Amino acid sequence: MILASFIKVPTPEDLFKIQPNLEGILFDMDGTLIDTEEFHARSISKALEKNNIIFDYRDVYKLVYGKPDPVAFQEMKKMFPQWQNNVDEFLVEKEKAFRTFFEDFNSIELVKKDLATLHLISALKDRFPKVKRIVVTAAERQSAQFILQTFFPDCFQSLVARGDTQKSKPFPDPFEEGCQRVGALSMDKSKNILAIEDSPTGIASAIAAGLNVIEAAWFKKH
Fold first, then answer.
1. Region at 154 (left for phi over 0; alpha for psi -120 to 50; beta for the rest)
2. Cβ(47)–Cβ(220) under 8 Å?
3. How far apart are CA 13 and CA 39, in angstroms?
4. What is the 3-state secondary structure (H, E, C) of 135-198?
5. How far apart are alpha carbons 218 and 13 in whole angstroms?
6. Which long-range contacts (CB under 8 A, 24 or more apart) does 10-15 make?
7. Dist CA 75 CA 208 (whole Å)
8. Residue 111: pLDDT band with limits 50, 70, 90
9. How far is CA 148 from CA 30, 66, 113, in A?
């Protein structure tokens, strides 16, 4: 269930008020740790443009927000059946465009300048080192590692990425895997774990895994 929704990044104390026996936190990445959703939408739009299909990134954003890339690909295929790419080709083109956008817009330094989630993770790491910090994302592993190494170096003990489980979000598999990596092998133990998610797809996945959820609303347009 959703225990709380924050429009500002919480402090460790805020999280302990919600879950006093906190043993682990499972963080979504895109839209939760860092506001990359627009860049993903721009990257998909760019991949389409390379195939002579013009579809504004803002419309892409509305259509695929919070959805794993293979699902986004299928949504695009329905709209543009003339698109010749297969899913693997799409993932390669999107990843190239994604990294290029960061370079072109000098986004790394811009985002790092005021990344409140980095302050939260650093505080947890320094003051509450026994609380395990795991990233659970629907992003492809290479893309997730790029983001984490760039913005959150040495901040997390483990990463659950797309392909690490049989099914991705909104199924419970990714968060169940995250619980195992925290060391919670039973439902009783998972009560001491919080999931922090922004999208309906991710929230549904965490709830299906039996977790209490904090809704990350700090990057949403209010």
1. left
2. no
3. 32
4. EEEEEEHHHHHHHHHHHCCCCCCEEEEECCCCCCCCCCHHHHHHHHHHCCCCHHHHCCEEEEEC
5. 17
6. 10/120, 10/214, 11/120, 11/123, 12/120, 12/123, 12/124, 12/127, 12/128, 15/194, 15/214
7. 24
8. low
9. 11, 18, 16
User: d(Cα 189, Cα 65) in Å, to the nearest integer?
Assistant: 31
**Residue 182: both structure tokens together:** 């925290």
For the whole model, what pTM was predicted? Answer: 0.83
Rounded mean pLDDT of the chain? Answer: 89
State how far the Cα of 64 lies from the Cα of 49, in Å rounded to an integer. Answer: 17
Using CA atoms, how far apart are residues 19 and 194, in angstroms rounded to an integer? Answer: 8
Asked if the model's pLDDT at residue 103 lies above 60, the reply is yes
R_g of the chain, CA atoms, integer Å: 17
Q: Which two tokens stand for residue 117?
A: 């989630």
Cβ atoms within 10 Å of 191's Cβ, excluding its own = 15
How many whole angstroms separate alpha carbon 67 and alpha carbon 75?
10
Q: Is the pLDDT of residue 113 over 60?
A: no
